[in-house]
Amino acid sequence: MKRTQRKRRLSENEEFKIMTLVLDKFLWIGAALMGWGLYESIANTFQQGFWYILSGALVMLIFAIVIIKEFERIR
Question: Per the domain annotation, does 64 fall within a domain?
Answer without folding.
Answer: yes
